[in-house]
Amino acid sequence: MQAIGGYAAKARAAELLNGLGFAPGDEARPVSAFSGGWRMRLNLAQALMCRSDLLLLDEPTNHLDLDAVLWLEDWLRRYPGTLIVVSHDREFLDAVVTHVLHLADGTAEIFSGDVSHFERKRAERLIQQQALAERQQRQRAHMQSFVDRFKAKASKARQAQSRLKALERMALVAPVRVESGITFSFAEPAALPAPLLVLDQAAVGYAGRHIVEQIGWTLRAGDRIGLLGANGAGKSTLVKLIAGTLAPLAGERREGKGLVVGYFAQHQLEQLDPQATPVAHLLRLQADLGEQAARDFLGGFGFSGERALSEVGGFSGGEKARLALALVVFRKPNLLLLDEPTNHLDADTREALAEALQDFAGAIVLVAHDRALLRATCDEYRLVRDGRAGVFDGDLDDYAALVLRKTPPPGSEAAAAGASRRDDRRERAEQRAKLAPLRREAERIEKRLAALERERIEVETALADPALYDGAQAGRIAELTAQRGRIGAEIATLEDAWLAGQAALEEAAASA
Question: What string of DSSP letters covers 246-259?
Answer without folding.
Answer: S--SEEEEEEPTT-
